[in-house]
Amino acid sequence: MTSALDERPVESSPARFEVLVPPPADGSTQARLGRLALSHGVVETPQFMPVGTNATVKALSPDDLREAGATIILANTYHLYLRPGHERISRLGGLHRFMAWDRPVLTDSGGFQVVSLGEMRKVDDQGVTFQSHLDGSYHRFTPELSIAVQEALGADIAVAFDQPVPPASSSRADVAEAARRTHLWAERSLAAHKRPNQALFGIVQGGLDPELREESARFVAGLPFDGICIGGLAGDETAAQRGVALDVAVRLLRDDPRPRYLMGLGSPADLLDAVHRGVDLFDSVLPARVARNGQLWTPEGRINIRNARYADDDRPVQEGCRCLLCRNFSRAYLAHLFRAEELLAYRLATCHNMTFTLDFMADIRASLRSGTFSACLSELRARAAGKGRVSAS
Amino acid sequence: MTSALDERPVESSPARFEVLVPPPADGSTQARLGRLALSHGVVETPQFMPVGTNATVKALSPDDLREAGATIILANTYHLYLRPGHERISRLGGLHRFMAWDRPVLTDSGGFQVVSLGEMRKVDDQGVTFQSHLDGSYHRFTPELSIAVQEALGADIAVAFDQPVPPASSSRADVAEAARRTHLWAERSLAAHKRPNQALFGIVQGGLDPELREESARFVAGLPFDGICIGGLAGDETAAQRGVALDVAVRLLRDDPRPRYLMGLGSPADLLDAVHRGVDLFDSVLPARVARNGQLWTPEGRINIRNARYADDDRPVQEGCRCLLCRNFSRAYLAHLFRAEELLAYRLATCHNMTFTLDFMADIRASLRSGTFSACLSELRARAAGKGRVSAS
Predict the structure, then answer these.
(1) Within 13 Å and on the Cβ side, how many CA atoms surround A286?
(2) What's the rounded Cα separation, in Å, for the pair B344 and B350?
(3) Which terminus of chain A, N or C, has less C-beta within 10 A?
């Protein structure tokens, strides 16, 4: 593993990760504070990445994202390949310029979306043939095409093409087969990747089976990726099942110098638990999606703003919150906007949940910096418990 | 008329209007530069008021409005009476606090909406009985209730309850009857209005008939209103018909010291023409509505951003425009957002058309200030001609 890593000279690496505060020697937590330097800026970890599927985080502008505290966002390779097309974005100067976001971006590989199409796709060792969800047209993704699309988009971090499977409802044979294919594709993704100012992360699969998960982690960690994604979780598994699989992977990666990114996790309780188990990076549509449905996250739990009780409530959604919504407007006003189906409702609610999530991560980082994470864990869990009810809904 | 005006001491007036540059003595234009001081600030005229029907200008935040240059907005009494309710807004501290807008607001009387309900309303001399467009429930508006609702909302300017009729398709008898009723209701609105920090504007009706229009202007100008609305236009009439009716009203009001507000007009060509004929204030949903449909206004005419030709166009919608859209994003990006039905599309497009409209009014004011309006008229008309094509679509 170390020899493979040595092939890339550190000084020219497009992703320089430094662990500023390692987990304590007493083993009370695997949580760590880090700093990830990318082409477009520095990302402090643990960190949450808002999802900008169509080169826009739904309802927000780049200024809204900056104000919420986002330092890195994720964009979806599958969606941008189909519309407006990666070659078009490349001609227009790349994804950063296209969406006017000058901070780091990570693109996923499209594997999750393509493989999730169910009846509309067919997987073989060479790649995946699928039908577009937009117009039913036929397409084929291979590791090489996924990398080419991501190089055209020009994100700071690209991700190897993989085959995730539903962790809890897949047979061991299916999980093993998908992991085998993911490993083949990891090597082909690495071989295909040329863009020098773009990092490439590999993806660990292996479902919930400790043996398969460990085997996958060992295989992917042995390749010269710039970071390690833990895929195939945040699916249909329980939190306890996820914890076991996560611990297996992190234990294998314990002495690995690269950042760990758990794909697809978004509720505050889940984020906190995964940080505690040693994860550095996260992404999810959850905070934004529930916001557009009128669910606001606060330290005291969720608010469903469509509930009649808020129609006359002149308090902000969260006292002392610095977001656009809470600084200016009452619960009653937001309730009115949702009832009237006014567009401003979705922006204000998304600003709040995004600010809440990013502030929660910042508080986690502050406790890691001051060495009080383990001591703060019960208080952080209490805050997350209110929010945890959201994730379960 | 002057005696009626004298009943209100000038120093305590909730609307102090000053004509800074009167129309030139040569009669080449009736356009004038003015300054209207209201409870929440000063409005330079000629001025356009964005429409915030449900206590929000669709797709924009108060910051967006300020950045676009809005100094006064309009909110709809009918809509806010039905939802969330004027008493609720009053309990929550009034409309300004409710929607976090600290600059002037004008509320209309609800007359236009109530009378536009067609089969769902019945008009008599006492008021209008109508069914809610939201749930079919029965309601009755009278001049007294309209004023009570507007006092509860607490706008800087309230408007007398009136009965507009479609100007071109109504019989002379219907127009005369509606004007008679509007005059009755003007007096009752004045008698009912008590809120000291709120101005009250009267509404001139009289359709397209010069005699009825002049009679209505004379009657309403004889009452101690703080400003004069010219209603019952911007409907099914031609621009030429509107011009005739407008000239009749403005001629009658020539020596009147109060601001003139033409209700419901919004295309740049129409605004320019009405300024030229002596109008000070305007409102319309047009710039925002066409923006949400993907029509962008520029000095060279309209852009329908859904047109395939813009998919690869990396230029801003309008070169040199200071708006949120043009400062940051390409036509190609906006075209993508509209195709993907992303919420940011509607905000960006609305920011542009609103900025364009308010900048156009600012340029008109600048030419009035420098005494070059008549000289600039052909250039302003050329810019509006591109935009005029929009208003005709």
Answers:
(1) 26
(2) 10
(3) C
Question: Has this prediction a pTM greater than 0.90?
Answer: yes
Distance of CA A385 to the CA centre of its chain: 21
Contact at CB, B55 and A333, closer than 8 angstroms: yes
CB pair distance less than 8 Å for B93 and A314: yes
CA of B97: which chain A residue's CA is closest? A329
What Rg do the C-alpha atoms of chain A give, in angstroms? 20
pLDDT digits (tens, 9 = 90+) for B157-211: 999 999 999 999 999 999 999 999 999 999 999 999 999 999 999 999 999 999 9
Tens of pLDDT along A300-311?
A: 999 999 999 999
Q: Exactly one of A108, A162, A209, A273 is catalytic; which is it?
A: A108
Q: Which residues of A touch B92 (CB under 8 A)?
A: 312, 314, 330, 332-333
Phi, psi of A363 (to 5 degrees): -70, -40
pLDDT > 70 in chain B, percent:
95
CA B229/CA B226 separation, integer angstroms = 10
pLDDT in tens, B335-373: 999 999 999 999 999 999 999 999 999 999 999 999 999
Cα angle B116-B121-B127, degrees, rounded to a multiple of 5 = 95
- Tell me the chain A residues in contact with residue B343 when contact means C-beta distances shorter than 8 Å: 58-59, 343, 346-347
Query: Which residues of chain A lie closer than 8 angstroms to B332, CB-CB?
Result: 84, 88, 92, 98
